[in-house]
Amino acid sequence: MPEMPEVEQVRKTLTPHIKGKIITNVEIFLDRLIQHPTPEAFIKGLIGKTIEDVGRKGKYLVLKTADNQKLIVHLRMTGALIAQDSDMPAPKYAKIKFTLSDNITMWFTDIRTFGTLYLVTDNDTYIEGYETLGPEPLSAGFNVEYLTPLAAKSRKPIKTFILDQKIIAGLGNIYADECLALAKILPMRLANTLNDAEITELCKDINIVIAQGIKNRGTTFRDYKDGEGNKGDNQNHLLVYSRAGKPCKGCGTTLVQTKIGGRGSVYCPICQK
DNA sequence: CTTCGTTCCTGGAAGC
DNA sequence: TGCTTCCAGGAACGAA
């Protein structure tokens, strides 16, 4: 499930294969994934363009294809962008084929087909989730001064609060559980009950957990792969996620699984307060 | 206004 | 063994 570290790893691994390449053809095998404009206009708008830059904003990949045009991709649950030689067979679950110059093909694959793609030209559409993103972990705008007043007026569980992309861009279910475990805060605590010391610790630990995820090239549980089709390594470094019933790495207590905001959540009932 | 539940979708695992 | 049921969750949406 691509969260910020996974999307960043995709960006990094994709860049050397596609940057500077010309898009010579586009084939769409599932129209529904194209959110804007029409599939026909999407194809027409991309053919002949050069991929000038491969960027990222939160969990969105942003491919610049002209001064006034960008291809925005959200992988959601099981989407992937993979670059490979054009003479290689199509990967499984291929949904969109971007034929590039220099014998490279970039495939968009997706098992559950929740992924979304937008071709935005001259800001001709408004992408709600993209435009309202909060600051990212590890960025200057993400700090205690920013987070404290927002938490103070939120009555959501702290886990749900930090999963809100308008508050923090890039956290998903795995890293949210990990951040709260490291900060020793129970995920069901309401955001406005955290004291200053706890917010400070959480802020610091969100940065630590995300930096570790990036360093370990992302977390692969089931389907996530980077731009070259490789898995990440961070699943071998997790404190709580997917470890329900196993001993806490801190105190040995059996980790507990529950549901918060409809999402599976794992925590240590002793270490986390 | 905020918060909560539902929905989209498929594959894999668990249960009987 | 083979079938059915449940679960995974990002984010939009409608309901409370």
Description:
- With 273 residues, the chain is of the alpha+beta class.
- The chain contains seven helices and eleven strands.
- It has a five-stranded mixed sheet with strand order 2-9-5-4-3, covered by helices on one side. A four-stranded antiparallel sheet has the order 1-7-8-6, with helices on one face. Strands 10-11 form a two-stranded antiparallel ribbon.
- Helix 6 (173-183) crosses helix 7.
- It starts with a helix and ends in a 6-residue tail after the last strand.
- The protein binds a DNA duplex (16 and 16 nucleotides) through loops.
Query: What is the helix tally?
Result: 7
Structural class per helix/strand content? alpha+beta
Strand order within the widest sheet? 2-9-5-4-3
Question: How many strands?
Answer: 11
Average pLDDT number = 95
Radius of gyration: 20 Å
Descriptive terms for the model:
273 residues, alpha+beta, four-stranded antiparallel β-sheet, 7 helices, 27% helix, DNA-binding
What is the topological layout?
Elements: H1 4-18, E1 23-28, E2 34-36, H2 39-46, E3 53-57, E4 60-66, E5 69-74, E6 79-85, E7 94-100, E8 104-110, E9 116-121, H3 128-131, H4 144-152, H5 158-163, H6 173-183, H7 196-215, E10 256-260, E11 263-267
Parallel strand pairs: 2-9
Antiparallel strand pairs: 1-7, 3-4, 4-5, 5-9, 6-8, 7-8, 10-11
Helix pairs in contact: 1-7, 4-7, 6-7
The structure holds a DNA duplex (16 and 16 nucleotides).
